[in-house]
């Protein structure tokens, strides 16, 4: 009645090496953990989301830079990590499917059997769009529940905000108050691995702290008696018996069952000395003859499970069945079992690959790595009359459909993607051709390679793989749009022709799984980390025949960001923490003549403990904007004297949430304006030089999603944002208007800019509750009957655009 969960991974469709979630997790943890706590306080993101929601509602959070509207660009054909899958119980055709992306929200598809049927998103602005599981109430199928929050300690785990519920078949959803805020069990619901609902409408939720039960539709909860540790799986039999599996990491493996609707539980564990456990029930059996399959993770270095076991007597006894190398060392991260509804001998098992047995576990047939896509998280059989041959799979590539994987007689099943419109792709970095109006965007993704989108500007387009592995950062030469640099994990950069998409290796690598790099288009020199910052690659002649040389930097290990300066051979390098307690990080260095005669390295900023996530250069190399990505610290710093003095732009009264700040850029049209990519969308300031920059959210047309990079194109003032869960979006920075005459009433929060003057005339009223700023380069003229009503805020500034 429910399938759920969520997590991250890595895919390498064109690179033979398989992924390393542990490496990604280590990087992400160091970049975001609170130095004072020694952990990532995911609960703080939930709190800040709620503050943002309330702030926008009561207008205490402003919009800062006005006039920015984001347009989704795609990819329109490539999905992302999917753990939540469910057939709509109200659809008689059994074709309508709900799916949830771990960072991209809840979606539905009206015909999963059709290759052209498209997905529709439910709501981009739920308080949390990290969907982990979904289930329906069999006593009233109009009622459904969605769990949020990734519970498997993956590299970019997104914490949830509780459970959502619908009472009208999915038309509208509401967050259950009992699972969020200051509710008794709110902390339990920050990561929900699984939900099941019995025939009495009683809801059971598998959390990191045990099984919780509600008998009143989620209004209240109690702790069931199946332990208090990490629930790895929940299943409910056709007879109403509930089975709960426990285990993860250092937590011992356990399996319990309850025959009295969760009042009491019996330990039926075959082995208490393993880690994560996945279970599956044969729906065609029940009672004392219930057939159960169970699979346990051994450790992070084992390709095979610790064991695969089978019980034919509802867990009273267990026997080993044939083991198989299905996990790829990632059992803690991706593991799924599902039994055919009418054939208890046909079982599908998923790890980093997928396989099945048609003889009850005596033999297994595995698909090759990447077929259909690595890292399996959910499996469903589709009923078509009396047949269950069709199978729907959720994995790190999105949603997969097979017309025959449930057919024991078919030895060569086929698979095809079902990702049209299902844009839950997790990007890390992007770049664009510097051509006005051009739609070419290239970017690196988690699990889904480096992708190219070449649709028309502001139009959602398909993504095309141009490099295997986990794509990280990408660069398009801003002087020659035929040249691009694309990447994979551990610094595997390649030079690509954007016209033909053919590429050749630069012959470089890095000690870092997620590698920092930058490209000097003007001089055709590429810089990339080599040995965690103690040395950096310098690749000359990128436009002809690239030549790579590594040079020492004089910087301690821990480089987290590299930015090319305005002067040739100049680099700005930021450091990040390597291990906790942090012994380094939060420092900014300037290297002059890097790799040339007279190279010098100078420490120009010590900004406190944390990891530098971006460095932006302003009008000169004296003007710098630096962001740091850890919780619990000041995250934005500004200098206009080359680092002699740094000013924090993230004080308590400045308006930024306490979440990771991933990236920052200046608006070259008006360098007082700054945009930030954060864990809560894009934020901006109209004046970074002000003592209080007055940060405001800038998410119109975007989503409540983690944003990892911003990229500016000078040809037409286009900005692209790489989101980690909803693909790529673009916007245009407004061109500075002139001779602005305001005649209408002002009621909300708005900043009016002009490159010449602003005239507030007789019909211009700043109404009660408004927060209005007029900023003109030359003057602001207020005519005699211009009115600011009581309770309004009005500012007239001489600054303006440019």
Automatic annotation (TrEMBL):
InterPro entries per record: GCX_COOH (IPR055015), WD40/YVTN_repeat-like_dom_sf (IPR015943), Xyloglucanase_GH74 (IPR052025)
One example of a Gene Ontology biological process annotation: xyloglucan metabolic process
CDD domains on file: Sialidase_non-viral
NCBIfam families: GCX_COOH
Protein name: Sortilin N-terminal domain-containing protein
Native source species: Emticicia aquatilis
């Amino acid at each position: 009645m429910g399938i759920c969960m969520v997590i991250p991974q890595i895919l390498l469709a064109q690179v033979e090496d398989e992924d390393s979630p542990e490496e990604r997790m280590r990087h992400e943890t160091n970049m975001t953990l609170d130095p004072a706590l020694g952990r990532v306080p995911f609960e703080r993101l939930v709190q800040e989301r709620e503050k943002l929601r309330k702030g926008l509602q009561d207008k205490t959070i402003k919009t800062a830079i006005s006039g920015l509207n984001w347009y989704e660009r795609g990819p329109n054909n490539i999905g992302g990590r999917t753990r939540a899958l469910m057939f709509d119980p109200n659809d008689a055709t059994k074709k309508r499917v709900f799916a949830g992306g771990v960072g991209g929200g809840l979606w539905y598809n009206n015909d999963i059997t059709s290759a052209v049927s498209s997905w529709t998103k439910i709501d981009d602005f739920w308080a949390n769009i990290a969907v982990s599981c979904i289930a329906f109430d069999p006593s009233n199928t109009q009622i459904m529940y969605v769990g949020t929050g990734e519970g498997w300690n993956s590299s970019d785990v997104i914490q949830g905000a509780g459970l959502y519920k619908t009472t009208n078949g999915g038309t509208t959803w509401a967050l259950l108050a009992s699972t969020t805020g200051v509710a008794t069990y709110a902390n339990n619901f920050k990561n929900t691995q699984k939900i099941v609902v019995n025939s009495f409408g009683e809801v059971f939720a598998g959390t990191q702290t045990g099984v919780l039960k509600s008998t009143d539709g989620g209004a209240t909860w109690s702790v069931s008696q199946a332990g208090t540790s990490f629930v790895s799986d929940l299943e409910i039999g056709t007879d109403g018996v509930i089975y709960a599996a426990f285990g993860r990491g250092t937590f011992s493996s356990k399996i319990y069952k309850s025959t009295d609707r969760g009042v009491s539980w019996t330990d039926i564990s075959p082995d208490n000395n393993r880690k994560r456990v996945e279970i599956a029930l044969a729906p065609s059996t029940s009672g004392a003859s219930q057939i159960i399959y169970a699979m346990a993770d051994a450790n992070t270095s084992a390709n095979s499970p610790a064991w695969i076991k089978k019980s034919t007597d509802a867990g009273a006894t267990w026997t080993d069945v044939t083991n198989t190398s299905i996990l790829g060392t990632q059992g803690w991260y991706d593991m799924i079992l599902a039994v055919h509804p009418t054939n208890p001998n046909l079982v599908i098992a998923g790890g980093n690959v997928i396989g099945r047995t048609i003889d009850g576990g005596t033999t297994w047939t595995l698909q090759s790595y990447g077929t259909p896509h690595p890292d399996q998280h959910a499996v469903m059989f589709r009923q078509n009359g009396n047949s269950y041959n069709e199978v729907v799979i959720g994995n790190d590539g999105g949603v997969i459909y097979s017309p025959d994987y449930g057919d024991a007689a078919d030895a060569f099943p086929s698979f095809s993607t079902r990702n049209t419109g299902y844009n839950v792709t997790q990007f890390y970095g992007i770049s664009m051709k510097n051509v006005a109006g051009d739609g070419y965007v290239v970017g690196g993704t988690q699990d889904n390679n480096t992708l190219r989108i070449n649709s028309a500007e502001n139009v959602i387009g398909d993504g095309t793989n141009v490099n295997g592995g986990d794509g990280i950062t990408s660069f398009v030469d801003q002087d020659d749009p035929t040249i691009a640099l694309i990447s994979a994990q551990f610094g595997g950069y390649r030079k690509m022709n954007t016209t033909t998409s053919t590429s050749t290796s630069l012959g470089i690598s890095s000690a870092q799984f997620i590698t920092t790099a930058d490209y000097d288009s003007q001089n055709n020199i590429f810089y990339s980390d080599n040995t965690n910052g103690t040395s950096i690659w310098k690749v000359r002649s990128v436009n002809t025949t690239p030549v790579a040389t590594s040079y020492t930097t004089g910087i301690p290990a821990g480089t987290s960001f590299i930015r090319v300066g305005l002067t040739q051979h100049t680099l700005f390098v930021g450091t990040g923490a390597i291990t906790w307690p942090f012994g380094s990080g939060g420092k900014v260095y300037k290297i002059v003549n890097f790799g040339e005669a007279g190279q010098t390295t100078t420490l120009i900023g010590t900004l406190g403990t944390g990891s530098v996530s971006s460095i932006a250069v302003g009008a000169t190399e004296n003007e710098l904007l630096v962001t740091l990505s850890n919780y619990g610290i000041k995250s934005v710093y500004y200098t206009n004297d080359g680092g002699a003095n740094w000013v924090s732009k993230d004080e308590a009264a400045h308006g930024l949430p306490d979440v990771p700040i991933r990236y920052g850029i200046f608006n070259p049209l008006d360098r007082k304006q700054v945009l930030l990519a954060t864990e809560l969308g894009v934020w901006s300031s109209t004046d970074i030089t002000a003592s209080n920059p007055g940060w405001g959210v800038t998410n119109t047309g975007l989503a409540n999603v983690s944003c990892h990079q911003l990229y500016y194109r000078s040809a037409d003032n286009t900005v692209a944002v790489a989101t980690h869960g909803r693909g790529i979006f673009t916007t245009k920075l407004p061109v500075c208007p002139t001779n602005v005459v305001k005649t209408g009433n002002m009621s909300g929060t708005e900043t009016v800019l002009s490159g010449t003057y602003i005239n507030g005339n007789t019909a211009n009223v700043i109404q009660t509750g408004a927060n209005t700023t007029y900023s003109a380069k030359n003057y602001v003229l207020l005519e005699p009957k211009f009115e600011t009503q009581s309770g309004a805020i009005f500012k007239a500034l001489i600054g303006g655009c440019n």
